Amino acid sequence: MKITSAEFVMSNSDVAKCPKEPLPEYAFIGRSNVGKSSLINMLVDRKSLAKTSGRPGKTQLINHFKINQNWFLVDLPGYGYARVSKKDKKVFQKYITAYFEKRKQLVCSFVLVDIRHEPQPIDLEFMEWLGANGVPFAIIFTKADKLKPGAIERHVNTYLNLLLETAWEEAPPHFVTSSSNRMGKEVLLSYINDINES
Ligand code: GTP
Ligand code: MG
Question: Among residues 22, 38, 114, 144, which one has the fewest Cβ atoms lying within 10 Å of its Cβ?
Fold first, then answer.
């Protein structure tokens, strides 16, 4: 799919105030610093449409980006950031939970995990919560430029096998990406395009 336009529409913490248009949308969620905002920029070929940072906790709100005038990419704050206060964590949990529970336009969420790391309980629990709430999701392994091809395959297999041994009967769709070397861009855009056209 060719990206012909990508524009920031709005940021907010209230799902009721998100764009009203009934356009399909795709949300990026995962631990702080996993590379959600960077991946959005990579997909749309823009350096800083979504704000990124080396320090975790950069994205704080629900951010809507309209793509090709007919669908949305949604950048969300990360979870699991240790330096956020308990109170902030609760507020965050509330509006992100509400976003996933109430947003009718959400057609698929992408749960991002750093390909270098062992499966983390917080990610596995979040995927189970999505499953229990009937929210379709796919896994995106990020920062693949940090591993050699053999290790990429090994890490992905370990991750998927763990899912199959525990909560899941079949592996969710999954993608291997790098915002640094653009790995996975076309495959991911085709996946989105296929859903948009179905
Ligand atoms: P929060 O908004 O804080 O939750 O973080 P985020 O998940 O949006 O991460 P962000 O895109 O801001 O990236 C975090 C850091 O990881 C930045 O320093 C990025 O440059 C780096 N990064 C993101 N993607 C990649 C990647 O594919 N490869 C490498 N090597 N670094 C990456
Ligand atoms: Mg971010």
Answer: 22
